C-alpha cells in the first residue's frame, strides 16, 4: 500500500521570517495528517525552517541541487549542504528548471544519482507542454523523461524515488488535468514505463504524485485515482489553510 505524499514547492517566495511563520502554520494546520507532508522553501530559508518544524511530522525538502560534491560552481549547493540544513527530499527536474535554466535528462540523472548517493530522496518531475500534448506526444515525452532520469539506477535505488507528473500546461495556469487525464498518465508511467525498466512489483511500490494545479477543491477526486499517490503543490502551498485542505484530502 503506497502512502500518499504531499509536497509544497514554495518556489521563489517567502523571506526567512515569512517562511518560518508559514512553516509553523503548516505544522499546526496539518497535525494528524496521514499523508507524508513535505515543504520545500528556498535555499536561504532551509535551516531556519528546519528549526521551526523540528520534532513535528512535517519533513523538509529542497527545490534543486547540484550533482558535484564541491568546487567552483558559483550559486549552486551540494547534497551535503542540503543534508546539513536538515533536508530529506529534493525536487529534481522541475519544468521551470527545464524551461528557464537548461535542465536536461542528463543533468536530472546526475542529480538523482548524487541525491541517492548522499542518502536523500529525489522527487523527479516529468511532464509535457501544451504543444506536446496537443501534438499527441504526451506518452513519448513522459517516457523520455522517466527513462532519462532512471538511467543506470538499480531497483533498490528506484524504490527510494518519487515521481511527480506535472503537465506543464496545468502549472500556475488555473487549468487542471481531469482526474481521468491525470490517472491515464500516472498509469502509463507505472504500468508501461517503470514496469519495463524494472518489473511490475517494483513499479507498484513507487509513489507518483500529480503536480498540476492541485487545490483543496479538486484534491480528493484526484487522490482517489488508483495510481495518483499525492501532489506536488505550488501556489496552494503558500497559504497554510489551502495546503491543509490538500494534505487532509
Short description:
The mean pLDDT is 96. The radius of gyration is 17 Å and the shape is globular.
Find the CATH topology: TIM Barrel
Helical residue percent?
40-55%
Which parts are unreliable, with pLDDT below 50 for 5 consecutive residues or more? none
Strand numbers in spatial order across the main sheet: 7-6-5-4-3-2-1-8
What does this structure look like?
α5 (105-117) packs across α7. This protein starts with a strand and ends with a helix. It has helices at 16-29, 46-53, 79-84, 95-100, 105-117, 130-134, 138-149, 155-158, 179-197, 200-205, 216-223, 240-247, and strands spanning 5-9, 36-40, 58-62, 89-92, 121-126, 162-165, 207-210, 230-233. An 8-stranded parallel beta sheet has the order 7-6-5-4-3-2-1-8. It has 249 residues and is an alpha/beta fold.
Set out the fold topology.
Blueprint: E1 5-9, H1 16-29, E2 36-40, H2 46-53, E3 58-62, H3 79-84, E4 89-92, H4 95-100, H5 105-117, E5 121-126, H6 130-134, H7 138-149, H8 155-158, E6 162-165, H9 179-197, H10 200-205, E7 207-210, H11 216-223, E8 230-233, H12 240-247
Parallel strand pairs: 1-2, 1-8, 2-3, 3-4, 4-5, 5-6, 6-7
Amino acid at each position: 500500500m503506497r502512502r500518499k505524499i504531499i509536497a509544497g514547492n514554495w518556489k521563489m517566495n517567502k523571506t526567512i521570517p515569512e517562511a518560518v511563520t508559514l512553516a509553523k502554520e503548516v505544522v499546526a494546520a496539518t497535525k494528524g495528517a496521514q499523508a507524508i507532508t513535505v515543504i520545500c522553501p528556498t535555499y536561504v530559508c532551509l535551516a531556519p525552517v528546519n528549526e521551526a518544524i523540528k520534532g513535528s511530522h512535517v519533513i523538509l525538502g529542497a527545490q534543486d541541487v547540484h550533482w558535484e560534491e564541491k568546487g567552483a560552481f558559483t550559486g549552486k549547493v551540494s547534497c551535503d549542504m542540503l543534508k546539513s540544513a536538515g533536508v530529506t527530499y529534493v525536487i529534481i527536474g522541475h519544468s521551470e528548471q527545464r524551461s528557464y535554466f537548461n535542465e536536461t535528462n542528463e543533468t536530472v540523472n546526475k542529480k538523482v544519482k548524487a541525491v541517492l548517493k548522499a542518502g536523500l530522496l529525489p522527487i523527479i518531475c516529468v511532464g509535457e507542454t501544451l504543444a506536446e500534448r496537443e501534438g499527441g506526444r504526451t506518452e513519448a515525452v513522459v517516457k523520455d523523461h522517466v527513462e532519462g532520469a532512471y538511467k543506470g539506477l538499480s531497483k533498490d535505488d528506484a524504490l527510494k524515488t518519487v515521481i511527480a507528473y506535472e503537465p506543464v500546461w496545468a502549472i500556475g495556469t488555473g487549468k487542471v488535468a481531469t482526474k481521468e487525464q491525470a490517472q491515464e498518465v500516472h498509469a502509463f508511467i507505472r504500468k508501461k514505463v517503470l514496469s519495463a525498466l524494472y518489473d511490475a512489483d517494483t513499479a507498484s511500490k513507487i509513489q507518483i504524485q500529480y503536480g498540476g494545479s492541485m487545490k483543496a477543491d479538486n484534491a480528493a477526486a484526484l487522490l482517489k485515482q488508483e495510481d495518483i499517490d499525492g501532489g506536488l503543490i505550488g501556489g496552494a502551498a503558500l497559504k497554510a489553510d489551502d495546503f491543509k485542505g490538500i494534505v487532509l484530502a
